[in-house]
Write a structure and sequence with these properties.
binds zinc ion, disordered N terminus, Metallo-beta-lactamase, Chain A, alpha/beta
């Protein structure tokens, strides 16, 4: 099944001056509607990678900004969060929700480098769905920010911070008109997938999840059903996956199968392996697009609007 230009998907893709030139954006056949805008600040899995041969897609770890009207929603606080912090700090007092897929360090390490968190006027709500009942968000972040691993503790944050631990599967309604459906993912220690719905648009953020070869994860299908954008853990190729069973990650080929089955309008390959340089991601992108035209390889700086 090929999803391509016949799709009625509404998306405008924009390219910043600094954005990668090798990344293709769908454009001609896509029509706009106001809803959710998405910007990728970190697309890398596991470890930040500053090497020049990875620079075009970007080396920062998971962080995706989504705007619903004037609401700022951030998915994961990987190292990409630092640059987002500089941008929002320049725009006056920050009010944001940060939704964590889980608390592995590549998804959390940007938090102490998010400048607005040191401003008393900042209001943050941190959401996580994989820790209860044994742990709490506050405890997990406090553990990362403790001697001898980190020089300052949570008490250094001056922002007003609310911690919202929930159970993956809950439906979150943080603001009028903003709905997040959630589901548990298959990852060591657990992870949470999100489906954001706002003003008739929808985006699924599904990372750090391993598939069961030969079957389609029902939780993932439900989150991604008919969405405008499905962001999915495509850490491995199918060939690499054979040597990485039980590591908690999926493949771009499985992403294509899931996106097709869920009838997602656009698929974004995400959580790139640190071993995948720009040339390899170019190859993966063109192979994936030959199977499913409505596919993009997520890159730092990429912006999409639905
Ligand atoms: Zn990760
Ligand atoms: Zn993880």
């Amino acid at each position: 099944m090929t999803h391509g230009h016949e799709s009625s998907t509404a998306v405008i893709a924009e390219r910043l001056p600094s954005e990668p030139t090798g990344t293709e954006f769908p454009s001609a056949h896509w029509r706009a509607k106001s809803g959710i805008s998405v910007r990728f600040w970190g697309v890398r899995g596991s470890l930040a990678c500053p090497q020049p041969e990875l620079a075009r897609y970007g080396g920062n770890t998971s962080c995706v900004e989504m705007r619903c009207g004037d609401r700022l929603l951030v998915f994961d606080a990987g190292t990409g969060l630092r640059a987002l912090g500089a941008l929002v700090e320049a725009g006056g007092p920050t009010d944001a929700d940060i939704f964590f897929s889980h608390f592995h360090i590549d998804h959390v390490y940007g938090l102490p480098f998010f400048a607005p968190i040191y401003e008393p006027a900042t209001r943050l709500r941190l959401w996580g769905g994989n820790l209860l009942p044994a742990r709490r968000i506050e405890q997990a972040i406090g553990q990362m920010m403790s001697e001898p691993l980190f020089p300052i503790g949570l008490d250094a944050f001056k922002a007003g911070i609310e911690f919202h631990d929930f159970h993956a599967g809950d439906v979150l309604k943080p603001h009028p008109g903003v709905v997040l459906r959630t589901a548990p993912l298959n990852h060591p220690g657990g992870a949470t997938g999100y489906r954001l719905e706002y003003a008739g648009s929808s985006v699924a953020y599904i990372t750090d999840t391993e598939h069961c070869p030969g079957s389609l994860d029902r939780n993932v299908l439900e989150l991604a059903r008919g969405v405008d954008l499905m962001i999915y853990d495509c850490n491995y190729t199918e060939q690499e996956y054979a040597a990485h069973r039980d590591w908690g990650h999926s493949t771009w080929q499985q992403g294509v199968r899931l996106a097709n089955a869920a009838d997602a309008k656009l698929l974004a390959l995400f959580h790139h392996d640190p071993a995948h340089d720009d040339a390899m991601l170019d190859r993966i992108g063109s192979e994936a697009k030959s199977q499913r035209a409505a596919t993009v390889v997520a890159a730092e700086g990429m912006r999409l609007r639905f």
